[in-house]
Specification:
- It contains 3 helices and no strands.
- The chain is an all-alpha fold.
- It has one domain.
């Protein structure tokens, strides 16, 4: 899994690239796009992806 710092970095990248007003579905799509380019995240199973995107969404929603 990701460290707290890595999670924060991913949320920051998404916010910088796509803005701070994405709805949940668009946010998850952005995460999936990013995961394709990050070693180790491109091969997550559905449960792992859901766990990570849920954690990232919580951070994103706080901004």
């Amino acid at each position: 899994m990701l460290t707290t710092e890595q999670e924060s970095d991913l949320v920051r990248f998404i916010t910088e690239d796509f803005g701070a007003d994405l709805d949940h579905d668009d946010f998850v799509d952005c995460c999936l796009q990013m995961f394709e380019d990050i070693a180790g995240l491109e091969c997550l199973d559905d449960d792992q992806t859901k766990t990570i995107t849920t954690r990232l969404w919580r951070l994103y929603a706080q901004h």
